[in-house]
Amino acid sequence: MSLISGDSSALLVDGKLVPGSGGTFEVVNPATEEVLGAAADGTAADMDAAIEAARRAFDTTGWSREHAFRARCLRQLRDALRGHIEELRAITIAEVGAPRFLTSAAHLEGPVDDLGYFADLAENYPWQQDLGNAAPMGIPTHRYVLREAVGVVGAITPWNFPHQINFAKLGPALAAGNTVVLKPAPDTPWCAAVVGRILAEETDIPPGVVNIVTSSDHAVGALLATDPRVDLVSFTGSTATGRSVMRAASETLKKVFLELGGKSAFIVLDDADLGAACSMAAFTVCTHAGQGCAITTRLLVPRNRYDEAVRVTADALRGIRPGDPNEPGTVCGPLISEHQRARVEGYLRLAVEEGGTIVVGGGRPAEHRRGFFLEPTLIAGVDNTARVAREEIFGPVLVILPYDGDDEAIRIANDSPYGLSGAVWGTDEDRVRRVVEGVRTGTLGVNGGIWYAADAPFGGYKQSGIGREMGVAGFEEYLETKLVAEPAAKQRG
Ligand code: NAD
């Protein structure tokens, strides 16, 4: 039986569930290579209609001014999604290859509940802020600031955490009063399409406020960057695509918000529990087969304990076998596609060419003859100049690097084009704090602390992005600022 009914694979355009004018394309289960079914293949014409609908809904309805109505709609969407959570979970496991244990907090229940946080912001945010009186050029004036929606948001998302990222864009963009065209990744169209069906059938969100265009063609999403009717592009994906989106958006000078790649460092200080820290680093890189932008993929250990750290980390990785994502005990599922696995395997060959050693893993697990699985892998014997230490691999692959002294650990962590996330383990609070202040990244976990939450801003320094997602900072990315000045005598209240 199909996981999905016909209407669940439609586009959502101007409040209607419609077929893609390009027909359909296949949805593949990465754990079995089985074709699960078909998704609507949106074309440039569908994208044009979706953008037009979003423009009309923004320009001709009261959506952007009706804060309480938007809060109600977002809570309605959250509650409707909660009512379909097992349907969504089944699709997420089958389409994304997401391990079941990750589907609640990271993929589904957590991000769905986060919509409530943004509903609260729609209701409670100070939309008008008083600047008080002044006398610029000698004229007594009262000033206030209005925060207003930016307009039409084009949201382009990747396949690795599709619900979390789709909701992290829909939540704040809608709460702020924007209308949205969402273009999900070609590998995970159903995750978005089912949300479109639920939104259309079970919420009062007006037609045109949310449009969802699935497509097999990346170029269809690229139209969101060039179209003058779109006011802001909110993009999550690779740094290379982010550059292209920013270039394309520059023609119409629209706002760009970018959440991009990472090569984050896990720094083990010499007073840390080496075994616990290295085991945690191994576990982290296996989670969702390493397909997370903020996963720590460079393990930095004191040089005088390098051999011991390599041994402990290799043992931990050996103990984590890739498995069926449906099984509750599976940590490391498949990679999303054959293309992605081939790309990761290319990096493993490169590691050897660069003089590195594959200490553990490096192959396809013998027990899975189907599915895009790869063994958890440890690369040792390279330094931070190696491409495998500098480029995002996006698989269950950890590179272990030695350092001498805390300052060198900070230098190596920062010697990267990226600056997304990281981890520091140590017992001396002052030393840990020095490292925290020295590492240039958007988030950092200390001794296992979890930085992800609805109210916690997430994003990158350097080439890991521009702007922040989540929290008040993330909400404000979707707002414009209007300063109003009136004669001081007119001040009210
Ligand atoms: P990708 O850049 O290939 O694709 C992302 C999205 O962009 C997809 O929807 C794709 O169809 C679309 N796209 C591709 N080319 C485009 C173009 N020229 N113009 C407009 N849209 C285009 O990324 P991916 O392989 O889907 O995802 C993995 C990447 O995403 C990794 O680099 C990862 O680090 C990054 N990522 C970042 C975050 C973050 O928050 N920083 C979160 C998750 C994933």
TrEMBL record:
Q: Which ranges does the record mark as transmembrane? A: none
Return the broad EC class.
Answer: oxidoreductase
Superkingdom of the source?
Answer: Bacteria
Task: Provide the E.C. number(s) assigned to this enzyme.
Answer: 1.2.1.3
Using the record, list the residue span of the signal peptide; answer none if the entry has no such feature: none
Gene3D superfamilies cross-referenced by the UniProt entry? Aldehyde Dehydrogenase, Chain A, domain 1, Aldehyde Dehydrogenase, Chain A, domain 2
Q: Which residues are annotated as active site?
A: E259
Q: Which UniProt keywords apply?
A: Oxidoreductase
Family, per entry: Belongs to the aldehyde dehydrogenase family.
Protein name per the record = Aldehyde dehydrogenase
